[in-house]
Amino acid sequence: MYWKSCPLYGVESKRKLSYLLKVSLNSLRDVDLNYPSENFEEKGRNLTNPSPKLKTVLETILNYLFKLRIPQYEFGGIKGRNAVQNVQCHVGHGYILRTDIRHFFPNTNYNNVYDFFRNKMKMSIDCATIISLLTTNIAAGAQHRSLAQGYPTSPVLSLLVYLNLFDEIDYYARAHDFTFTAYYDDLTLSSTSIINKQHLRKVKHIIRKYGFEAHPKKTKLVIVTEIHSKIKITGVLLQKNGLYIPKKLYKKLHEAVSLIDPVLNGNLKYSDDDKKKLVEQVRGCIAAIEAISLENDFQGYRDQARHLEKTIDYEQLSENK
To answer: Which residues contact 187 (CB under 8 A, 6 or more apart)?
Structure first.
């Protein structure tokens, strides 16, 4: 990795850092006070919503980190790459090893992030401290700062902080003529020849070597050489002859669309913010389905979403935020 390609490399003064982040120098003197975030729980996961001010700073940091040459095996949170492309890499490969690094973000703590900015990016102690505080937080119920699930910088930072872990798995995969991809902490290896338990043990060993654990419920060896056999990877079904759209995705789309008419008719009371989320859900589901297959025509659904969008007062919505 050529670290010097990132504008953050070698930054030693807080004044230079404030210039790069496009914020005032004073605002960097108390990061948690000036750049707050909100912790919440959803479906058993501790998530964090950065304030608009913090999100802008994090997106600036992310754009600088994207100047680095991100490995081709990583698809999560990378511009121009997505979950479908991640799975497409494994089409036609009958043998799949899939695992997940358990509690990856919560266990990538402040010290790990600081070490990256201080020793890899060669930033001064003060600057490394500030940017590490900006990109981590203390989640609800947590005892220490770590990468937040909800910050735009977390996916790329998790990769860069533990680049040696991912590179070691990639090296092992290449040595055995396997295909390796990562989508956040979701790891997939595939091959046209058998991937056995010995290979699985080796991957688990590499993960443990860096202080993590392969999630026992999400770790499996699967053979998809028959028409009926399949495996879901990052929300997409992989079968012998290609990718298939999960029924749950269709169900989610239809459920969202079914709410539009009641909202438009006033039978279902939705705030502008809720309307916006509903429009985004419909469009997001359509985009996810069409990324896998273009056989469906969703123009009617698009028209309904656009009709609902016209009823949203975006100016008022922006003021409320």
So the answer is: 98, 99, 100, 101, 169, 180, 181, 203
* Distances in whole angstroms, Cα of residue 193 to Cα of each of 2, 111, 131, 162, 269: 34, 41, 45, 29, 56
CB-based contact 81:72 (threshold 8 Å): no
State residue 11 phi and psi, 5-degree precision. Answer: -70, 125
Tell me the whole-structure pTM to 2 decimals.
Answer: 0.80
| Helical packing angle, 52-65 and 14-21, nearest 10° | 100
The Cα–Cα gap between 206 and 213 comes to 9
Q: Identify whether the C-beta of residue 135 lies closer than 8 Å to the C-beta of residue 58.
A: yes
Tokens of 144: 């220490």
Helix, strand or coil, per DSSP, at residue 101? strand
**Separation of alpha carbons 136 and 50, rounded Å:** 11
Three-state SS across 266-306?
A: CCCCCCHHHHHHHHHHHHHHHHHHHHHCCCCCCHHHHHHHH
Inter-residue contact 169 to 186 (CB < 8 Å): no
SS3 109: strand
pLDDT band at 139 (very low <50, low <70, confident <90, very high): confident
d(C-alpha 180, C-alpha 171), whole Å: 9
Q: What is the DSSP letter of 220?
A: E
